[in-house]
Specification:
The structure is a homodimer. By secondary structure, chain A is α/β, with parallel strands linked by helices. Chain A has a single domain, classed as Rossmann fold, CATH 3.40.50.300. Helices cover about 50% and strands about 15% of the residues of chain A. Chain A has 12 helices and 7 strands. Chain A starts with a helix and ends with a helix. The interface between A and B is large, with 83 and 83 residues.
Chain lengths: ~300, ~300
Amino acid sequence: MRAISRAITAIENASPEAEKLVRELFPHTGRAAIIGITGAPGTGKSTLVDRLAAHYRRSGQSVGIVAIDPTSPFTGGAILGDRIRMQGHALDAGIFIRSMATRGWLGGLAEATAEAALVLDAAGKDVILIETVGVGQDEVDIVRLADCTLVVLVPGMGDDVQNLKAGLMEIADLFVVNKADQPGTDRFERQLRAVLEIVPERDGWRPPVVRTIATENQGVSELAGMIERFGATMQAGGKRSRRRIEHWKQRLVELLHRRLMLRVGRHLDDRQLEVLAAAVAAREKDPFAAVDEVLTKAGIE
Amino acid sequence: MRAISRAITAIENASPEAEKLVRELFPHTGRAAIIGITGAPGTGKSTLVDRLAAHYRRSGQSVGIVAIDPTSPFTGGAILGDRIRMQGHALDAGIFIRSMATRGWLGGLAEATAEAALVLDAAGKDVILIETVGVGQDEVDIVRLADCTLVVLVPGMGDDVQNLKAGLMEIADLFVVNKADQPGTDRFERQLRAVLEIVPERDGWRPPVVRTIATENQGVSELAGMIERFGATMQAGGKRSRRRIEHWKQRLVELLHRRLMLRVGRHLDDRQLEVLAAAVAAREKDPFAAVDEVLTKAGIE
């Protein structure tokens, strides 16, 4: 567990060893099932992830959890952390939990998450649960990494299902209505199903709706069963590998970005960037002219 | 209004004229006050933005609104749109409302939003309201553009204030507790203030909490007053220009990214990217080797 932890830290810090590490691990990856879990704060995602993890452990599978903290470019993390929840699984060597936050401009959160998943995959975890909040571009990117994506909702969040945005609809392979003992659950589920009917099927699959009460462990094994059914459907149609190729297309573009930025960074330190930005803010220089200057210095274009 | 609209469309589509356009507009920008409004779905942000806009209009200021749709890389938009809300202001030439969605990998949403704001700024809008959802990296980037950022909360979202993440705390210049007629408002505000006390002051300012009931137009002019007070405080301390320089540092990095990706794109069409991604997904090639191949072909490094 310590080795996994160190490897992920190296990745988070974009340390020089990280690339070498990922390169070495890479041939040993591709085996784990990656499940993405997303939803707004307060939907009980973390509890659901814990319960799913426990379910997989009971069936003898090893589990890795990557929990993405809402992004803070400043402190990199949640105020109150999630140390408490980790304690529940602390004694189980078959489970590994890691929180991640954003990094600076040299690499993206989606990329760090994908690399952390590679580490857990190479370490032999059977199931990797990636927990993320909301549906910003970060979340959409992260979710592309998953073989199966759960969107967690609760009855009564926002005014009704009309607040569900297209982004959620399009990343969800399964909808989970958690806290299903709350009033309004029936109405909420009915509305959700009505909206789902007008969304086109994707890969021959229409996202089902599963009810859970994660705090009471209700509906969790049904959810796991549905995840498995989704996996079997995708595998049968060759859709899983199609999805993985799409993921790698995106990841290669991100890697290209990082390589290029490292190259530019060698010719542009923070002080020089500051001087250029001040000239632009003062309208002494337009932003495109500033950028052209940098590229010329870096010997590109 | 049609000219503004066309200009923003050119930016969204990253069309060849967009850069020329921004370059020409640029010397005429820097005058508008840019206000960012962020918050989870269901917090009533859009209504609040509408009411704020109406407030500024009554005081004789022209207003531009850029509403960022929850990001969908597929359809680029919300299911139900916000056409209805636009109708309320449709006859007022002093107000311009535009929804934006994400773009492809050649440019970011934050960048497109910033450029749309430049267009509105050059068009002479006094106040630009930028409305965005949640706190993914996108939102943080977008918010960096604003001279003043409001975070909109409602009592009872999530279980309590502990669900507020550091990201929100650190981008907020002002907190708005909207729907302040809901039960639990007092308790929620008390908790929020308690959390705010432990957050360090930034730029000599501790984010105040303003209550609103946007649907009934309550608290809106108090909010506008507080925004003005914040602006005066920042202006006095030279903090506004400091913030704008920080914004441009980030924007220049984004522009560099776009330039470099355009260059790479000339040597890597989608079919070639697909072939590389398939090789990586099959573990025939590691992702770093794939990227090195592309850069060599593009004559970089």
